[in-house]
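Internal ticket - ligand job 397, cytidine-5'-triphosphate:
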Amino acid sequence: MLKGKKILLGITGSIAAYKTATLVRVLTKAGADVRVVLTPSALSFVTPLTLSTLSKHPVHSAYVENEETGEWANHVELGKWADLMVIAPCSANTLSKLVSGECDNLLMAVYLSATCPIMIAPAMDLDMSDHWTTQQNIDTLKEKQVHVLPFGEGELASGLTGKGRMQEPEEICDAITDHFDPRSKLKGKRILITAGPTYEAIDPVRFIGNHSSGKMGFSLAQAAADRGADVHLVAGPTHLQHDPLVQRYDVVSAKDMFEKVTLLFQEADVLIMSAAVADYRPASIADKKLKKESADLASIALEKTEDILAHCGSNKTKQLLVGFALETDHELVHAQRKLENKNLDLLVLNSLRDEGAGFGTDTNKVTFVFPDQVKEGVLKLKTEVAGDILDEIERML
Ligand code: CTP
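stdout (structure tokens):
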């Protein structure tokens, strides 16, 4: 999993340092190239010999490695070498220095020279981990994009029990693996997406349809598959191609779509109804082509189609429901009403008043309407809008 990844492990003075031998072992076993830098106080807890044997590289703890030869541990080179610098365990003292920038040892010099992402696994005693200065330092580091792993809980070296332990080596290794290959929350989730128009037959050659191209739904299916979701796409008539990883079901009418979606819905984690489903269909379909003189073509009696989304909304158990709405006036009022009536978690609103939004175009401008908030978007490619919608779904999951 970590083949070829260059990981610089910084070890500080905490009793949890004894676990770093296992951490180095786990990381090298996963294929990582590991180099180790220790603070002077870490040397009281773990020996350089153990770590150099496990990492198969000399470890560094002082600016001058060899007093006789005057060999210099190049902190800049080490800092630039790494793909990721992991400080584990990170003591309260080092945590504070990471914020202040105090540079009184090799580890701090490497940290200040590093241009790669930084991850830390703090370890300290119960009250130290709870102290407001620790919490403030953690918040500052998070703001600066340092990946701070949470404290582990359990028995502490002091005999107290609670928060403060370093994450286990295997957990740190998982976090490092996630860093290089972020696992989307959609991974393995079953996402049911509908796309395109529906065609409602009048007779064997005519139908009532709409201009939906299916681009939004197909973009969503592609983006969800890229994030590792198990994607099931129910598509109305369209010429669009789908990703081989997507399971596609072609349907024609609203009734076909209703049947397919309600069947697949039970097993789904998320339903995204981006199809432009016809609201009405001819009450009866002529079995022969109607002649233009025939009175039946002058006016066609219509009946309502099944509202697929409303049906799923009133039968949802665990599923997250996302609907679309295209409005021309009083957009937000209509959207909020639909969100509530159909029991949705998110309604993606398009306004036909926005140029470049809606049917057929490659772009879209949407507003996200949630039960408790509204987020306005800007004009983007449909592929980008698909990513935004999935980000919101991930957030809700
Ligand atoms: N939808 C559905 N089944 C239908 C009609 C629409 O599942 N028979 C879904 C669409 O896929 C979309 C949302 O419901 O996600 C649109 O809501 P809807 O109230 O039907 O919008 P409009 O058709 O625009 O309704 P209105 O004419 O009332 O504005």
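Auto-summary: The domain at 6-180 is CATH 3.40.50.1950 (Rossmann fold). The first strand starts at residue 6 and ends at 11.
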